[in-house]
# Entry
Amino acid sequence: MYMTKFPNKYIKSKRNGDYMTMVSKHFKNLISSHAAKEAQDFSQGSISSNILRLAIPMTLAQLINVLYNVVDRIYIGHIPHTSTQALTGIGLALPIITIITAFANLFGMGGAPLFSMSRGAGETKRAQKIMGNSFAMLLLSGTVLAVICYIFKHPLLYLFGASDITYPYANAYLRIYLLGTLFVMTSLGMNNFINAQGFGITGMLTVSIGAILNLLLDPLFIFVFHMGVQGAALATIISQCISSIWVLHFLVGDKAIIKLTKKCMRLQISLIKEITALGLAGFIMSITNGSVQIICNATLQRYGGDLYVGIMTVINSVREIITMPVSGMSSGAQPVMSFNYGAKEYKRVKSAISFTTIFSIIFTLAAWALLFFFPRFFIHLFNSDPELLEAGVPAMRLYFFGIFMMALQFAGQSTFTALGKYRHAVFFSLFRKAIIVIPLTLWLPTIAGLGTNGVFLAEPISNFLGGIACFVTMMMTVWRKLEDTQ
# Structure
């Protein structure tokens, strides 16, 4: 039956003895085309396979993405003579970096689920406009952020817990890092739309290229050219620049299922409201993370000085690495949930939620065991100062107790976001950090002489309370509704 569909050149080629070769090629093309379409259709095949196909490269991508900043801290934490002060300085700049990430999440993570749902419902033009509007807002917000942060970086850094000793290091890093804000916004925000189209490996390559370059440039600039923290910042923005070029090259190229065009970048208020509403959960999560970092650093500076601000920098770095696989799994599950929800395949949505939850719980239990029994190994990755190691071990054990309960927060949060339940997602983003962690961080150090231990104790309490509340609410609302609609 395929004979009538062959191009004329296939029929003519029979005279040259190439007929069977052309037939073979034609069938290969048909199979390849069908497989490519099926590969992007999340309503087909095993749910776990669909999630893992996206989650594994996305997890690797996030691991590599973590290296952008973590590698900086590893190298800086081992600079001779000034390692602890320089590492603490970088830690003071983290809240501003987190705020920049928050805006990338607002428009990237906000637009991608809407994009996936529109694609699942067959609304290609709407999906394209969502992607274009997200990109335009990333550029606008990135420009405003860079200018504001640069102008006010001096008072901000002191507000965040800087001292006269650590400020010069934080300032030297930040004034260069801010020059690459648009690169960061583009690579982080728009990579969501590569993953949302099912190109998980390409999404992984987005950050892999830049991160490997950063890994190579860091020691060159820091130790060979003796640029210190400025070299680390320069290596980071050069690497992010390359990543952003890769993202844009793919999204405007022929391989993308839905392309980014100038026309689709024309701002539409209605779409921006939808994108912002759905991205608000990720935005608030990042903003509250930044706020927690600020409060923790300022409180630790008051009760423990620069040493404990440095310990918190190490703990934040370890947390980024440890929680990254769970975050990658949640990110990989979201396009699958969104697509099937748009396609009204509710049983598959439930399967995706179950798979994500079970994986997250098992992994975080394993991570907790490693952190409890081998805290020195993780601290030593970032600093070798005996004083920091001595004080850091009990602080790390206390801070990470209950990290396995964070799995419930990840599972519930990703489900709310994927299914467009932005009000729930926003509330639980605020609940754990703003309503639990920040007040406890300020209050616990004043109780029974807890001091710095009170700061580290706030995190496990929030994991238990926030994780249970988020997951139970998801089961009582989303899960129950999915069962009723089957």
Observations:
- Residues 83-120 form the longest helix (38 residues).
- The chain has a mean pLDDT of 86.
- DSSP finds 18 helices and no strands in the chain.
